[in-house]
Amino acid sequence: MQENLLRDALITLNRNKTRTLLSGAAVAGGVFILLISLAGFNVFYNGSIGEIAKLNVESVVVNPLPTTKAYSGFSSGREWYIDKSDIDAIKLEFPNIITDSGPIYRLPGLRSVQIVDGESDDAEIIAMYPGIFSMMQMSMDKGRFIDGLDMLHLRKVCIIGLDLAEKWFGNNEDPCGKEILVGNIMYTIVGVLKKDNPFIQPFGNEQNSVVLPYSTADAVYKLEGELSYLVFSLNMTEGFEQKREDILRFLRQLHKVDPDDVDAVNVEGIQDFSQMLKTLFNGTKVIIWVIFIGIIISSLLGIFGIMLLSVRERKSEIAVRLAIGAGPQEIISQFVHESLVLSVSSSMIGLCLAESLIAALRLLMRIGVVSDPLYGPPQLSFWGILAVIVVVIAGGVLSGYLPARNMVERNVSELFYDI
């Protein structure tokens, strides 16, 4: 019985090839676009969340902002700054919580860099402690990090971003050991920062920066006054938010800022950023599903229109079959089979095309054509594919069932009268 129904469905669909192909192409296209969009979303999601997962989620980057509340005789809108003494004060106040900390100092008045035997260029000049590299889980493309011996011996060494390395020395030349002139001081390049995480950049655009040991920069350029950023890391996970807020409140009190003026401090917590990013991605995934499920349903409406037209065109056939004793369920089943054959086969074509393209992208990543660390492997979840199949099957059943049921519920004599 089922074989006869499938055979009849194929014969009927083959009889109206143009109509069948157009409707099938719409469904296949909708499924293909949905699956490719989900795979593309997963590439970005897996890559970015994977990079965030590498970071020390207990690290916090702090920089002060103008106050928004009047306090201790000072009006709102006052600018305040973090200085080096704050680091020791925080460590003394919270001795068992702070595992590491360090300042980041931007040298705004120093941007000119001259490559030896080359041209001058502009770059962001940064001074920082070695511990910040590990706190922010940064890694090197070439060479090494600034270390404690560089700080102790005031060595005139630096590391540069990968963009600057490629710009100044090309893609094939190792910059390590080369010398550059920062202001009027010569520094030896000992490392090149890798392009690791595009989301977390503790000192701005790190790929266009020259990083100096803090002690060396302090001795040469007399770093006084405010720091650009303060980075610290906590040795705990439970109660993290409360302890972080206690430290920030203490920092505000040190500088006579209202302890409750949360807008006076910009805090870039890795933990907060990771959660925000996941929430954003989850919302985006919902939007993608809503839009493209709408596209698939619109495509299925085309099949519904075809089945409605087919039922009307075959009114005489339905009337005769009812007159000779065929049951309504038998006739409905035939049209449901026709609709299912068209919708399911079209969706399988779209699924196969999407999987083929995804497999090609994974191959390109495996052989290194696509190697940016932001990109995770493209993949489709089992539940995503299952959801598409369920929607298509449900739409196919309804597209065949509703027009056929409406027809067989009519009186047989009325059907013959309308022929």
Question: Could you explain how this protein is built, in words?
Answer:
The protein has 419 residues and is α+β, with helices and mostly antiparallel strands. It has 13 helices and twelve strands. Strand 3 and strand 4 (120-122) form a beta hairpin. The longest helix is centred in the C-terminal third of the chain and has 44 residues, at 270-313. The model has no long low-confidence stretch (mean pLDDT 77).
Integer-rounded radius of gyration:
33 Å
According to DSSP, the number of beta strands is: 12
Strand share of the residues?
Answer: 15-25%
What structural category characterises the helix and strand content?
alpha+beta
What's the overall average pLDDT, rounded? 77
Entry keywords:
13 helices, alpha+beta, 419 residues, 12 strands, single chain, twelve-stranded mixed sheet
Protein topology:
Layout: H1 2-15, H2 17-54, E1 59-64, H3 84-93, E2 98-106, E3 112-115, E4 120-122, E5 124-128, H4 131-135, E6 140-143, H5 148-152, E7 157-161, H6 162-169, E8 179-182, E9 185-193, E10 209-213, H7 214-221, E11 229-234, H8 240-254, E12 265-269, H9 270-313, H10 315-323, H11 328-366, H12 382-408, H13 412-418
Parallel strand pairs: 5-10, 7-9
Antiparallel strand pairs: 1-11, 1-12, 2-5, 2-11, 3-4, 3-8, 6-9, 7-10, 8-9
